[in-house]
Amino acid sequence: MSSLLPGHQPQSDPQPPAEPDTRSHARPRPWRADASAPGPRPSEAPVLAGRAGELHALLDAVTHPPSVALVEGEAGIGKSRLIREALAHPLVRGRQTVVGHCHPLREPFPYGPVFDLLRHLADALPGGLSPVCGALRPYLPELAHQLPPAPEPLPDAGAGRHRLFRAVRALLDALGETVMVVEDLHWADDGTRDLLRFLVDDPPARLSVVLSYRREDLPGSGLPLGRAYRHPPGTTSVLIPLRPLDAHAVRSLVASITKSPYASTEFAAELHRRTAGIPFVIEEVVRTLPADGRDGRRLDRTALDSLAVPTLLQEAIAERMAGLSAAATRVVHAVAVLQLPAREELIAAVLDNGTGGTGGTGGAEDSAGPNSGRGAGSCARALREALRAGVLHECGEDTYGFRHALAQQAVYRRLPGPDRRALHRSAIRALRREDPRPYVQLAHHARQSGAPAQWRRYTEEAASAARSMGDLALAVELLEQLLSDERLGREEYARLAVELSRDAVVGLTHRRVTALLRRVVGDSQLPDGVRGEIRLNLGLLLNNQAGRYEEGRVDTELAVEELRERPALAARAMAALAMPMWGDHPRRVYERWIERAEELAAGQPDSALRTAVRGNHLSLLVASGDPQVWRAAEELLGSRAGEQDRLQLARTCANLADAATCTGHYAAAHRFREEGRRLAAACGATYLEGIVEGTALRIDWYTGHWEGLAERAHRTLELARDAPGLASDAHLVLALLASAGGEWDEAADRLERAGLADPANAMDPVLTAGSGAMARLHLARGEPAAARSLALRALRRAGRKGLWACAGNLLPDALAVLVRTGEQARAEEVLADFAEGIAGRDAPLAEAALSACRGTVAAGSGEPAAAVREFERAAAAYRALPQPYYAARAKEAAVRCALAAGAATPQTAGELVALVEEFGALGATRDAARCRRVLRGTGATLPSRRGRRGYGDQLSPREREVAHLVAAGHTNREIADVLFLSPRTVEQHVAKVLRKLGVRSRAEVPRD
Question: Which of 389, 421, 395, 167 is nearest to 288 (CA)?
């Protein structure tokens, strides 16, 4: 897949920040009830009710490393409680335990939760750490004296990030048996998700990872790690979803809290109904029941009658706060306004700066003046009081907050508006003294305090900080918030929209952004130059991420007109329109656009612009088969690239790799792919990394590297869930793999999703290859009319465009369809146009395809000897690329033509045997079976495999093929068609498969 021109240069890889305002704790110690001892009021039930199965599953994972446990559930469901119980279990004793948390108001600090939990390992670090652990020194200054020397900085930011990830893994590996917990993953930044994915994809042998999250609050794709997790071999993996408690479990929980066995079934059922079975809400409600309602046999549903369902939790929290002093109440209110767990010093600063209004929810001292609780000592006493009452909870070392976000919300909502705003203003004054400034938190408090100008300033500063650290997703999110403010002036609105469009065009966020930018460009009051830049970036978003190529092209063409007074940006737009991978315009249209772009760029001082335009021109030349282009491409990549040029070089490499793949220059494509991947990672250009990976999938398909290819394609689809433009390459490769394996329904579905269902918005390389594959599939399924119609449409498009150098993946299959359906004359005309179109061009794939086409046309005209020669020539050309699957198909065609002409030689049988083995090694089940059938027709037999009769209870190769098709849902008749066997033979194979696998039905046959 190719990329158009992004309009913004992001900063390089994140730099080590100062210590973030997040805290975690290293060894959690569960509270133990002791009625005889004074101390804090218990903050949770003494018994974990209704979670025996979930606790057993979590313990089993934690005690069998390497392991990954995903604990999922809604707010208040008991995820943290379950994890604490597991960590306190005797089976887990002796293991190092580190716990980190993600927070909702996250500052731009990638990897923060993981580095924060590592800070607390000062007493646990062993000696003899791997030298790579020295890369952690800038991030963990508290441990610097125990870490190896810091290595030399790497010029490539992507390589530096990879080294940092390896350092974290090496440190965790050195700890021995370790349990690492990261809670509230739904609030994690992209960097933390990347690091956690790296760890769980290949966890240290003695590491157990536990991740908790709320699925409903996960961003983007709705996957906790950003993509589906497939555990590696040897890793214990478990998903533990926590559901609301049933009425029986509610009754048990009530009994454990009240220490009374007399809760009636009726009471439990009513409590279950009112609380939806959420443990946290149940606990809070039960603790606030009147004493006579919790005494012995009086626990029945009448005890709940005075509690209104909508305010159950609010009333529960208010009841627990009723006995607090005014000073303790002010501390609780300050923590509620801060929203995140906070240090005592920060809480005191908020109280010192503000009025500390109570809102009438405190106890007997509500009438105390505003200065009653001031001073560090006073704050400490009030904080201890709130902790003893169980209203606040110690979240980590010198970090205090609510046990649950629901409790924080309940307190916050009971604060009168003037008191809330006063505390938010006080929080701003306190947080401004933090270093570095937590701009996201400052923006939040400014907005809640009713200071829109201040909120806009802090939000913009937060977006700038996020951008400088490579956290473009957060930058886009913050700019979207700003643009939602109806009070923005037109000029400010336009300026922010330009910034948003620049950030979004190199990220993966487009769904909300495109709709927002569409509204912006509809404002007729905007200056043309401003609207043109925004429209250009909108067009690039639609082309690159959204897969709406036609709409994006229209916007880009309009942008050219609007940018007439901004020649640099106009040149970018023209260069984007010159990319031949979109649309079906004649080649000369693309050439005119790039010529105009080069003229404009030549007079501009911006080297990045010149690099971008030149890069698109070179990509067009490669796609055209220009034999002189390679030296110019090497000169561009070898030029000294400044910081601003690097993104454009990354995009150029991605486009050159794509064009080189289309023309069959696979060695060059591989080199450009690797360089593009390196540069894209260094720039933080997630979208470009996706493009490079999509091209890599196609290269590996064509060059025969099919091992693990389907898994990689599926991973790409998961990552591209929010960017359909990146998914087409993966769908195409999965379709080609399925077709080679005889899974026709799967192949057809994938081809439709790759772009055939909407050809106007399909990428040209994918549409070209996909059309050829679908036409061939129609023939295999006995649908010649559909095959002919599709082939003709695809050939008309190729002829109109005139880029024959990129048509090598279409022509052999399309001409075979024409010959098979009686269109011999049409096939000869297309062959002549194809030969003329690539004459003098440097397009090795098209050259190989030309020989294959000549073989097909010769066979159709009754010239078998000529057909054999051309197919042999094609096979040799394909092998030289290398393109082994197509080489084997051309060789098979040569053998079949020789057999049809009665010109078989003593070597023919051996050639067929070699083809069977070659197709089988690739995984082309259908092709191997077809060659076996041809071989049987010659009267020859395959040589007996060593140990052929010694498979025992193991599946033979043929039985594995049958099992794979059975698992894919095929009937015996369909399997017979794919493998060229009789239905009776397939029936026998299926019976053996079921017996050897020990299953009773076809539905139980595993896919692998």
Answer: 389
